[in-house]
Design a protein that fits this description.
Layout: E1 6-10, H1 20-28, H2 34-42, E2 46-48, E3 51-52, E4 65-69, H3 72-75, E5 88-91, E6 95-100, H4 117-125, E7 148-154, H5 157-169, E8 173-181, E9 188-198, E10 201-206, E11 213-224, E12 228-235, H6 242-249, H7 267-276, E13 281-289, E14 296-300, H8 305-322
Parallel strand pairs: 7-13
Antiparallel strand pairs: 1-4, 2-3, 2-4, 5-6, 6-7, 8-12, 8-13, 9-10, 9-11, 11-12, 13-14
Length: 324
């Protein structure tokens, strides 16, 4: 039976003048943490006086009404540890860094109650339950199900809070590699937009919003492929679907992206995207300061086999086209 997840809180005198995320955290108490609530606010899950408010730092006033959609992490603590193969790049008592495979969902959600990275981590680490919310223990950031690449997971609250603070300050190095439909006109560029829920489809995000959070991507072409391109994207911010949206915004959507992409006109390229069966996006580099030791860490993982095969197939198209 589904639990009612909608809550409304009225700002009292004790919370008059507090930040929205701080006031909401005091109403909710305990889990999720303030940083997680701030993330929810940025994702449009919180309203102020019945209107979406994306600014976690907005000061609330006496009598204002805060609407909060409680995440499923709070109401479904029945997580199962499941033995699954993980590609571990680094691990100590504070955190674990993995190379996530494409197709692996990060945490339980509607349609994916188990078989997720969180289920695998519970079996691998044994002591993650309860960290940062029951359905997302230790999860600091996430990658889309069909995006592969490097992720870091915290093993205790102190690491979670330290890493979350660095993500919020945008001091994390994040480099993605993508295959695009179409070639950018320039060799490199910087995309700065607003980012928020698509007003016409709340399951999607959009850069065409009147209000939203700042989203910034620095990109460069690493290989031109004749009707396609291999692009590197360096993130200054890390919004949901940011790379997918930003490359679409410059007219070069990701190959195989079912949400923000477009079918290639070239039939052979279209078939390569169909065979790949996912957006051609890989989180290649993740660099950050260790939250406990202060050591600078940097991890890099090459794109997986399906991505490499798609790239090889596109290169083959170009060579065939240019042959006598």
């Amino acid at each position: 039976m589904r639990v009612n997840r909608g809550h409304t809180f009225v700002v009292d005198r004790d919370r008059d003048g507090e930040r929205l995320d701080t006031a909401l955290a005091s109403f909710v108490g305990g889990t999720p943490s303030r940083s997680q609530l701030a993330r929810q606010i940025g994702e449009g899950a919180v309203t102020l006086n019945a209107a979406p408010c994306l600014n976690a730092a907005r000061k609330v006033r006496l009598g204002e009404r805060i609407g909060w959609l409680e995440p499923e992490a709070v109401v479904r603590p029945d997580l199962e540890a499941q033995e699954m193969a993980l590609s571990v790049l680094f691990e100590d008592e504070h955190l674990i860094v993995i190379d996530k495979s494409a197709g692996l969902v990060v945490h339980p959600a509607a349609g994916h109650p188990n078989g997720t990275l969180v289920n695998a981590l519970l079996a691998h680490c044994k002591d993650l339950r309860g960290i940062g919310g029951e359905l997302r223990p230790g999860i600091v950031h996430r990658l889309d199900r069909d995006t592969s690449g490097v992720m870091v997971v915290a093993k205790h609250e102190a690491s979670l809070n330290g890493l979350a603070a660095d993500f919020k300050r945008h001091t994390i190095e994040r480099v993605y590699e993508a295959l695009t439909v179409g070639e950018p006109k320039d060799e490199s560029g910087r995309i700065a937009t607003l980012h928020g829920r698509d007003p016409r489809d709340r399951k999607k995000f959009s850069v065409r919003v009147a209000r939203g959070r700042s989203a910034i991507t620095n990109w460069s072409v690493t290989e031109r492929l004749g009707g396609a391109a291999r692009v590197e994207a360096r993130l200054e911010t890390g919004r949901t679907h940011q790379v997918r949206l930003h490359l679409t915004a410059i007219g070069c959507p990701l190959l195989g992206d079912p949400v923000y992409g477009r079918p290639p006109r070239n039939a052979a390229l279209k078939e390569i995207g169909r065979t790949l069966g996912r957006q051609a996006l890989h989180a290649r580099v993740l660099g950050f300061k260790h939250p406990t030791t202060g050591e600078m860490l940097r991890f890099e993982a090459p794109p997986p086999r399906d991505y490499q095969e798609a790239l090889a197939a596109i290169r083959s198209l170009r060579h065939t086209k240019g042959s006598p």
